Amino acid sequence: MSADFAPRYHQIEQVLRGRIAQQRAHDPLPSENDLCAEFGVSRMTARAALQGLVAEGLIYRVSGRGTFVSEPPARRRAENLVRFSEEMRRRGRVPSSKLISSESRKAQADEIHRLRLTDPAQVVAVTRIRLADEIPVALERAVFPGELSALLEMDAATHSIHEALVSLGRYPQRGYSSIGADIAGDLESHLLGIPTGSALLIEKRLILDQDDRPIELTESRYVSSRYVLDVAFEVDASGE
């Protein structure tokens, strides 16, 4: 679609993208009224342009204060597992969590297999929203062997689960992960504050302790516009 025939809100979006690229995080952007005056459009059109950028995570809005440039997406090397809180602090952002649920329940077949449990088995399941600067970044579902039921006594919204594991004598050492993609359903839309159908980056990982015993099986569903995984690779020169 050429610029001449693109919807007006889309044209305004493109102009704002160019400005955002030249600005720093938390710099102010024009208000809806400013955009109406600058582009000669209705308030509804100006709002649609801003809402599209909010959905992509490029800007954020604060009621009564205005519209601002968002922080760049959080980044992590795919081959390194750094605790989310530590990762955000390194980037100068304030990490936090919102606890959705914490419970002991019957293990599912895949959990029994990957955590090397004996059927039937119980697991500890913790679901949290991980935030950076109060912006939801990921929906995290973590499952632990039932023998680690002491995790239920901690406040998973304010304390590190990995530190709790260490206090229980289980030291996270290494792991495996797979990366995929999905789109947000109604649940992710509600919990992460994004439109239904938004792109999600899915990371599924298994973490082993110092004795090579599985201690954590986790799925993290990241808002793709707010989180990036970098990959280092070597080129296979063995064939075309």
What keyword list fits this structure?
240 residues, alpha+beta, Arc Repressor Mutant, subunit A, Chorismate lyase, 2 domains, six-stranded antiparallel β-sheet, three-stranded antiparallel β-sheet, 7 helices, 34% strand
Structure commentary:
By secondary structure, this protein is an alpha+beta fold. It folds into two domains: 8-69, Arc Repressor Mutant, subunit A (Orthogonal Bundle), CATH 1.10.10.10; 74-230, Chorismate lyase (3-Layer(aba) Sandwich), CATH 3.40.1410.10. 26% of the residues lie in helices and 34% in strands. It has seven helices and eleven strands. The protein has helices at residues 8-21, 32-39, 43-55, 84-90, 109-114, 161-167, 186-192; strands at residues 28-29, 59-62, 66-69, 74-77, 95-106, 122-132, 135-145, 174-183, 199-208, 214-223, 227-230. The strands form three sheets. It has a six-stranded antiparallel beta sheet with strand order 5-6-7-10-9-8. A hairpin with a 3-residue loop joins strand 2 (59-62) and strand 3 (66-69). Helix 2 crosses helix 3. The longest helix is centred in the N-terminal third of the chain and has 14 residues, at 8-21. The mean pLDDT is 86.
